[in-house]
Design brief:
- This protein has about 90 residues and is mainly α.
- The protein has one domain (about 1-75).
- The protein contains three helices and no strands.
- The protein has helices at about 1-35, 40-45, 50-75.
- The radius of gyration is 19 Å and the shape is elongated.
- It starts with a helix and ends in a 10-residue tail after the last helix.
- About 0% of the residues are buried.
- The mean pLDDT is about 80.
Length: about 90
Amino acid sequence: MTGEWVEALKTLVWALVASVAMSLSLGLLMFVWDKMTPRIDEWEELKKGNVAVAIVMAAVILTFGIVIASVLHQGITIQPPNLGMP
C-alpha cells in the first residue's frame, strides 16, 4: 500500500513541476512574442477589442501549449510497475 502512495505522490509532484514549467515557459513565450512584434502593442489592441489580434494571440498560445504539454508529457510519464504480466 505504501508503494502506491509513493507513486501517487511522485505523480502529484511531477504534475506540479509540469504546471510551473508550463507557466514559466508561457510567460517567456509572451515576452519573446512581444519583442518580435515591436510595432504592435498586442495588449492595447486586445483592450480596444481587436478580434484579429485576439485570434492570433490565442492561436500562438494554444500552439505553444500543445507543444510544451507534449514535451512535458513525454518527459514525465511514469511507467506502471511490472506486475508480472506480459
